[in-house]
Design goal:
Strand content: 15-25%
CATH topology of the largest domain: Rossmann fold
Oligomer: single chain
Low-confidence stretches: none
Distance between the termini: 43 Å
Radius of gyration: 20 Å
CATH superfamily of the largest domain: Thiamin diphosphate (ThDP)-binding fold, Pyr/PP domains
CATH class of the largest domain: Alpha Beta
CATH architecture of the largest domain: 3-Layer(aba) Sandwich
């Protein structure tokens, strides 16, 4: 099984989908430069650099999707999505419903998010919860190269607009990726480590932090189960409830601002539907309500680290 970085896995998924479906095209900020192999194979009609104009890029993609194409657009950094909110949220997310299902909008938007490069607040903002809250959109954020490839293939084939977030800190993380990678259905979480005492639930880079915390807890005799959501919308409610039903304890972890984040929705879900299974209060660990720093050490301080996750889980196991 070959080893690819997450960034290379994205490229592999794009090339395979473009070979299999001539309606798939890729355009955005620097895509023909960054992914020159796609330009070489598929030509400038299907792989195009664009001006730095996110609203125009997204608006063009909505029109292309409504016309029968399957565009994949790259808007680089997640904060730049602010410039494309009307096109993505008010058009792509709503027009299928408004047309009574007569039109579909198969559109994938790639955007980099999170700490790892010290690029500063205007380039580093985990804003995925904005789009989870927007009707008509699907939201994905993988933590491994294999998942990135499989989820992107599924996102391209989906008839709805998908926001596909790439964690900057994981872009060059290598991992095994099957040559024949099937699409991974959106809305399916995965259990990356089985456990019985506490559930550690996350997505993106903090999945790896949860796995490190679980290893630390195991050395103390605690058995932690680790769930990678992978898809934030649709949310795999069944997997979440099943795990909490087994462990009775839940720590939700994400890099994004803790206030009104995805973790709040997960906590509400468990409180409403699995309250009787809980042996302890739910703990949410997230970033602060502050812009990200440019300093690499301060940037990392925004992200829940393995030690903090292990301490929170140990507190639940010891006190309840």
């Amino acid at each position: 099984m070959p080893s690819l970085t997450l960034n290379d896995a994205i490229g592999a998924a794009l090339s395979e989908e473009m070979r299999g479906d001539p309606s798939v095209l890729v355009f955005g900020e620097g895509v023909a430069t960054k992914r020159h192999e796609l330009l070489t194979e598929f030509g400038a009609r299907r792989v195009r650099n664009t001006p730095l104009a996110e609203g125009i890029i997204a608006g063009t993609a909505v029109g292309a999707a409504g016309s029968g194409l399957r565009p994949v657009i790259d808007l680089l950094f997640a904060p730049f999505l602010c410039y494309a909110m009307d096109e993505l949220v008010n058009s792509a997310g709503k027009l299928r419903y408004m047309s009574g299902g007569q039109f579909s909008f198969p559109l994938v938007t790639l955007a980099m998010s999170g700490a790892g490069w010290g690029v500063g607040a205007q380039h580093n903002h985990n804003n995925e919860a904005w789009f989870v809250h927007s009707p008509g959109l699907k939201v994905v954020m993988p933590s491994t190269p294999a998942d990135a490839k499989g989820l992107l293939k599924a996102a391209i084939r989906d008839d709805n607009p998908v926001l596909f977030f790439l964690d900057i800190g994981l872009l060059h993380l290598p991992g095994e990726v099957p040559l024949e990678t099937p699409p991974i259905p959106l809305g399916q979480a995965t259990i990356t480590r089985q456990g019985s005492d506490v559930t550690l639930l996350s997505y993106g880079k903090t999945v790896h932090h949860c796995r490190q915390a679980a290893a630390s807890l195991a050395a103390r005799g605690r058995s932690a189960e680790v769930i990678d959501l992978r898809s934030l919308k649709p949310l795999d409610e069944a997997a979440i409830l099943a795990s909490v039903g087994k462990t009775g304890r839940l720590v939700v972890v994400h890099e994004a601002n803790r206030l009104c984040g995805v973790g709040a929705e997960v906590a509400a879900l468990v409180a409403e539907q699995a309250f009787a299974s809980l042996k302890a209060p739910i703990i949410r660990l997230g970033g602060p309500d502050a812009p990200a720093a440019s300093s690499f050490p301060l940037e990392q301080a925004h992200v829940p680290q393995p030690e903090a996750i292990a301490m929170a889980a140990e507190r639940l196991c010891s006190n309840y």
